[in-house]
Amino acid sequence: MAATKTRTSSFSRNFSGASSPQIPGLKHGPNGTMFVSSGIPDLDKILGGGFALGSLVMVMEDAEAPHHMLLLRNFMSQGLVHNQPLLYASPAKDPRQFLGTLPSPAVPKDEKSSHRDPDQEKGLRIAWQYKKYFGENQQGFDSQNGKHEFCNNFDLRKPLERQFLTGKQIDCASILDSPNLVTLHDRCATFLSQFPRNDSNISCVGRIAIQSFCAPQCGYSNLEWDMLSLLRSLKSMLRSSNAVAVVTFPPSLLSSSSTRWQHMADTLLSVKALPDEDKELATLLTGYQDMVGLLNVQKVAQINTQVPVILDTTTFSIKLRKRRFLVLECLNQAPVEGSSGSSYGTSRSCSGSSKTGSLDF
């Protein structure tokens, strides 16, 4: 009997990525891109999977409200939940105190229902032939919604538990009294040297969070060229390491070189606060009362591809669902006065007339 030959083709599927062990907090993307979660499920969907591994993410702050802290806290908490080493730098005297404000991952409702009291389960009757399927599904569901989920919903009112902070590889640095950026550069270089780039065998992923990089209270706030040089060096080091860096900065301080900063970033985001009472926006946007700010996606990282990423919309509303969970939604125009409140393009008449009845072609 002739031996059967395996069918080969130049378009055969590459199973190297699928066969590699799945690391908690790491997801495979197109063109060999690896993603880490931003800590916000909606932001991961907007960016096509999350923050690209080896990329530099920059967030432009707003002087009126610290909404950039919401993004930074979720990013840091997501890394600690996944046991990923963290380097945090800020202009505070004691940056480690900021770790006490990190949010805790919320427990899903289905996971809460799985830990019911046995006495309450007595009233639940299941046919004997379905009991075994009920047990299998219950075990698989618990493992799927376990601790190592790619992206968690974080409760902003509940602080992160100590078990995620103790025994972790967390390095905090203060950039307040530094006359130059040599110390911060050496800290980043030493931290990134622990995660050399090796796509075939990724054992761990690191995260860098730098808050208010060019704050006016810092000693290097006037050294614009040195700050640009540090960002250029940080971006090159990230390319050769398995890590992601998020840097927040106020663009008003560097009006002359803010454009250069935008070109340095792989992913560029900006946040803006909403005034308490803006009648014009209240009449234009639906759900204005629930909004706390706006998020603008100005640039999306392009890793291993030359095709630009074009989003359907670039401005999203920042909302706090139940005043606990951070949610991003598309802006929806409020219905015009005198209309029925239906969405755009849902009139019954194809010719645009407002008369009710059969369709008018």
Helix content: 10-25%
Counted by DSSP, the helix tally is 9
Oligomer: single chain
Question: Cα-atom Rg, whole angstroms?
Answer: 25 Å
Distance between the termini: 69 Å
- Unreliable parts: 4-20, 118-124, 126-146, 339-357
DSSP strand content: 15-25%
Overall average pLDDT: 77
Largest sheet: 9 strands, mixed
- The outline comes out as globular
What is the chain-wise order of helices and strands?
Answer: HEEHEEHEEHHEEHEHEHEHEEE
* Structural category: alpha/beta
Number of strands: 14
Strand order of the largest sheet: 8-5-9-10-4-11-12-13-14
Layout of strands and helices, then pairs:
Layout: H1 16-19, E1 27-28, E2 34-36, H2 41-46, E3 51-52, E4 56-60, H3 68-81, E5 86-90, E6 103-105, H4 109-114, H5 131-144, E7 154-159, E8 170-174, H6 182-192, E9 206-210, H7 224-239, E10 243-249, H8 258-264, E11 267-273, H9 279-284, E12 291-299, E13 315-321, E14 325-330
Parallel strand pairs: 4-10, 4-11, 5-8, 5-9, 9-10
Antiparallel strand pairs: 1-2, 2-3, 6-7, 11-12, 12-13, 13-14
